[in-house]
């Protein structure tokens, strides 16, 4: 029987070159389905703001939103490692603010780790949290909480200067003690260079196949999204199936059948 995932399991998987599967989920029912499908890590992403709460970015998501969704996922999981995103504004002011938010989330939800966005400038915070017992997942490359600054959700690291800066971000976050590092929307060769040169497991999303793990958003895998990003391959078409099913039921209701 498969044991509960831990930070040690994730580190060991990199050593054994075993590719891990991460998936987002936002409620207990979805967490149970992810578990049944053999997912290793469930990420309660602040993408919940865009796919469930109707916002056009992750910026409006609050700590309360993350506590609600993450505690629901924790109730639905059995073996998977559960990671909760720290939402925008809840950790960037200081390392002390980051610890206060992380401890609140860990205590109120029962999740295993937190994730935060940012490179070299967040390394001191990652070290501060790690030294105090918090399992931290980093997130670099296209970091959605910076969309207002970037101006779009486009790939990062396509020119040499940006690629070097992302590479240095990876080294800094890995050396600061992160348990894993999400690489979002960066060129595959840069993701491979990072993966080959750090001991921390990398988790790719739109970053090629060389990463130690892959993560996708629930709605993108299942074909539930209105706009699936170009790097995500839908493995079902549940949005269309849902519209067909609900329309058929609605017709039956109107026909009094
Ligand atoms: O919020 C999220 O779902 C994420 C993944 C896209 C990595 O951060």
What attributes does this structure have?
alpha/beta, binds 3-methyl-2-oxobutanoic acid, TIM Barrel, 11 helices, 257 residues
Give the SSE map.
Layout: H1 7-15, E1 20-24, H2 28-36, E2 41-44, H3 48-51, H4 63-76, E3 81-85, H5 95-109, E4 113-117, H6 123-131, E5 136-141, H7 147-150, H8 160-175, E6 180-184, H9 188-197, E7 202-205, E8 213-216, H10 218-221, H11 238-254
Parallel strand pairs: 1-2, 1-8, 2-3, 3-4, 4-5, 5-6, 6-7, 7-8
Helix pairs in contact: 2-4, 4-5, 5-6, 8-9
The chain binds 3-methyl-2-oxobutanoic acid.
Bound molecules: 3-methyl-2-oxobutanoic acid
Q: How many distinct folded domains? A: 1
> Total number of β-strand segments?
8
CATH topology: TIM Barrel
SSE arrangement, N to C = HEHEHHEHEHEHHEHEEHH
Strand order of the largest sheet: 1-2-3-4-5-6-7-8
The share of residues in helices is 40-55%
Instruction: Name the CATH homologous superfamily.
Output: Phosphoenolpyruvate-binding domains
Annotation field: number of helices: 11
On the 0 to 100 scale, the average pLDDT is 97
Task: Kindly provide the name of the CATH class.
Answer: Alpha Beta
**Beta content:** 5-15%
Shape: globular
Structural class: alpha/beta
What would you say this structure looks like, in words?
The protein has 257 residues and is α/β, with parallel strands linked by helices. It has helices at residues 7-15, 28-36, 48-51, 63-76, 95-109, 123-131, 147-150, 160-175, 188-197, 218-221, 238-254, and strands at 20-24, 41-44, 81-85, 113-117, 136-141, 180-184, 202-205, 213-216. It has one domain: Alpha-Beta Barrel (TIM Barrel), CATH 3.20.20.60. It contains eleven helices and eight strands. The protein has an eight-stranded parallel beta barrel, surrounded by six helices. α5 packs across α6. It is globular and about 65 Å long. The chain binds 3-methyl-2-oxobutanoic acid (KIV).
């Amino acid at each position: 029987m498969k044991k509960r995932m831990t930070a040690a399991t994730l580190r060991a998987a990199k050593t054994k070159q075993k590719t891990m599967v991460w998936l987002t989920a936002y409620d207990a029912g979805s967490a149970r389905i992810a578990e049944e499908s053999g997912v290793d890590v469930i990420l309660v992403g602040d993408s919940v703001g865009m796919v469930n709460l109707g916002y056009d970015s992750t910026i409006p998501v609050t700590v309360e939103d993350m506590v609600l969704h993450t505690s629901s996922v924790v109730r639905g999981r059995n073996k998977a490692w559960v990671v909760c995103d720290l939402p925008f504004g809840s950790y960037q002011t200081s390392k002390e603010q980051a610890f206060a938010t992380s401890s609140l989330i860990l205590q109120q939800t029962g999740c295993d780790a937190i994730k935060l966005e940012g490179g070299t400038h967040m390394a001191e915070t990652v070290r501060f949290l790690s030294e105090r017992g918090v399992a931290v997942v980093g997130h670099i490359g296209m970091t959605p909480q910076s969309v207002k600054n970037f101006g779009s959700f486009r790939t990062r690291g396509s020119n040499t200067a940006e690629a070097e800066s992302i590479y240095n971000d990876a080294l800094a976050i890995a050396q600061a003690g992160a348990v894993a590092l999400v690489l979002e929307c960066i060129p595959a060769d840069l993701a491979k260079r990072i993966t080959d040169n750090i001991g921390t497991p990398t988790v790719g999303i739109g970053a090629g196949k060389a990463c130690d793990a892959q993560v996708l958003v629930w709605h993108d895998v299942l074909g539930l999204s209105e706009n699936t990003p170009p790097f995500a391959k839908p493995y079902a078409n549940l949005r269309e199936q849902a519209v067909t099913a609900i329309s058929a039921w609605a017709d039956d209701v109107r026909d009094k059948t």
